[in-house]
């Protein structure tokens, strides 16, 4: 134990510098990413208890979705306006003409009656909004 | 410069919603399109107003539970791959049951699903 401790001590001091030259680049990259991926939630809709399902698909094209809410009592709502069934057809017809790739996402309450849904589907067929998505929650324990 | 960029980043971070719409996709047929289907290629699934599910076979209804539906449909699809499944629900049936059945049909691998219009 004759080795003195001073043998291992270093005198050289290394200054630490975080390079900030690319900081702006990185931040702009992130900025562009978030700008592109942001879609503003325009409509809140009405609170519904969506049914659950296992075999669900994601809608990739978020800009081509028309949301239709249907609550328990059978009220239909598009873009925060309560509409009657024949008005729904008119509104969606205009939307379909503006955007051929439109997907109608039906957010209906699980306790809603199928009859109304069926009427809505017939209306959608009539105005040629043929791509439909029945919005559901992922079933727990599924997959 | 970087400050402004970070400010904007913070703004977009907060406003971005990563929520993605998901659900069961279905392509509806156009109104003009009515196809005649052979009886042997058709399998009718009915839902009544008490949310009970049944197969319509040879003119009579045979009840089936939701958890058996998938294997039943799978078996039928294996026998006849051109099978079209016609889903018919009464108006008073609940949407939840309809989605459950549709989900089971999709899980069973059925691609040709037709939704029949209920009687008034």
Summarize the structure.
Chain A is of the alpha/beta class.
How would you describe this structure to a colleague?
The complex is a heterodimer of chains A (143) and B (120). Chain A has 143 residues and is of the alpha/beta class. In chain A, 29% of the residues lie in helices and 20% in strands. In chain A, the strands form 2 sheets. In chain A, strands 5-4-3-6-7 form a 5-stranded mixed sheet, with helices on one face. In chain A, strands 1-8 form a two-stranded parallel ribbon. With 120 residues, chain B is an alpha/beta fold. Chain B has a domain at 33-115: 2-Layer Sandwich (Nucleotidyltransferase, domain 5). Helices cover 34% and strands 26% of the residues of chain B. Chain B has a 5-stranded mixed sheet with strand order 4-3-2-5-6. In chain B, helix 2 (66-79) packs across helix 3. Chains A and B meet through helix 1, strand 1, strand 2, strand 6 and helix 3 of A and helix 1, strand 1 and helix 3 of B. Strand 7 (131-135) of chain A pairs antiparallel with strand 1 of chain B, so a sheet runs across the interface.
Write the layout of secondary structure elements.
The complex is a heterodimer of chains A (143) and B (120).
Chain A: H1 23-37, E1 52-53, E2 57-58, E3 65-70, E4 76-78, E5 81-83, H2 85-98, E6 103-108, H3 114-126, E7 131-135, E8 137-138
Parallel strand pairs in A: 1-8, 3-6, 6-7
Antiparallel strand pairs in A: 3-4, 4-5
Chain B: H1 2-15, E1 22-27, E2 42-47, E3 53-57, E4 60-64, H2 66-79, E5 84-89, H3 95-107, E6 113-115
Parallel strand pairs in B: 2-5, 5-6
Antiparallel strand pairs in B: 2-3, 3-4
Helix pairs in contact in B: 2-3
Q: What are its keywords?
A:
heterodimer, A: 143 residues, alpha/beta, Nucleotidyltransferase, domain 5, 5-stranded mixed beta sheet, two-stranded parallel ribbon, elongated, B: 120 residues
């Amino acid at each position: 134990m004759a080795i003195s401790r001073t043998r291992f001590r270093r005198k050289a001091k290394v200054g630490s510098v975080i390079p900030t030259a690319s900081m702006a680049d990185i931040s702009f990259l992130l900025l562009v990413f978030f700008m592109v991926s942001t879609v503003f939630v325009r409509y809140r809709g009405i609170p519904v208890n969506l049914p659950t399902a296992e075999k669900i698909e994601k809608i990739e094209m978020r800009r081509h979705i028309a949301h239709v809410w249907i609550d328990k009592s059978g009220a239909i709502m598009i873009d925060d306006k309560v509409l009657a069934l024949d008005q729904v057809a008119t509104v969606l017809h205009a939307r379909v003409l503006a955007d051929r790739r439109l997907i109608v996402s039906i957010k209906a309450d699980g306790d809603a009656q199928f009859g109304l849904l069926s009427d809505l589907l017939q209306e959608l067929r009539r105005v040629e909004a043929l791509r439909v998505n029945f919005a559901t929650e992922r079933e727990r324990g599924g997959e | 410069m970087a400050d402004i960029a970070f400010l904007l980043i913070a703004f977009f971070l907060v406003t971005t919603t990563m929520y993605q719409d998901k659900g069961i996709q279905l392509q509806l047929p156009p109104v003009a399109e009515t196809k005649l289907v052979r009886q042997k290629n058709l399998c009718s699934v009915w839902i009544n107003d008490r949310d009970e599910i049944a197969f319509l076979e040879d003119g009579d209804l045979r009840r089936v539970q939701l958890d058996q539906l998938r294997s039943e449909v799978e078996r039928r699809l294996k026998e006849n791959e051109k099978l079209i499944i016609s889903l018919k629900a009464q108006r008073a049936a609940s949407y939840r049951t309809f989605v459950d059945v549709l989900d089971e049909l999709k899980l069973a691998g059925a691609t040709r699903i037709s939704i029949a219009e209920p009687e008034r």
